[in-house]
Write a structure and sequence with these properties.
Layout lengths: L8 H29 L2 H21 L5 H7 L3 H12 L1
C-alpha cells in the first residue's frame, strides 16, 4: 500500500484484494484443466514456472516508499494533526 501513497490505503487494498480473488479463480480453473489434460508432474511444473518468475521479479523490485518519505519531512506536531484530521 506504500507505493500508492496519494491514494487512501482502503482503495488500493480493496482493489488488490479484488484482483487477487479473480486471479485465484482463474488459476484454480487453469490448474484443474492442466491436471485433466496432462499428468500431475507436468501440471505442477507449468504452475510453478509463473510463480518462480514472479519471485524473481519481486526480488528486483525497488519500491519507492512515498508515505514514509512524506512523514519524514513533517514535524511530529504535523503528523499528529494529520491523524486527528482523519477522524474529524
Amino acid at each position: 500500500m506504500e507505493i500508492t501513497y496519494p491514494e487512501p490505503e482502503g482503495t488500493s487494498g480493496g482493489l488488490l484484494s479484488g484482483f487477487v480473488q479473480l486471479f485465484g479463480i482463474f488459476a484454480t480453473l487453469l490448474y484443474g484443466f492442466l491436471l485433466e489434460t496432462w499428468e500431475e508432474d507436468i501440471a505442477n511444473t507449468i504452475a510453478a514456472v509463473p510463480l518462480a518468475l514472479a519471485c524473481v521479479t519481486l526480488y528486483f523490485l525497488n519500491p519507492e516508499l512515498k508515505r514514509q518519505a512524506a512523514q519524514r519531512t513533517k514535524t511530529p506536531q504535523e503528523i499528529e494533526q494529520d491523524n486527528i484530521d482523519k477522524f474529524v
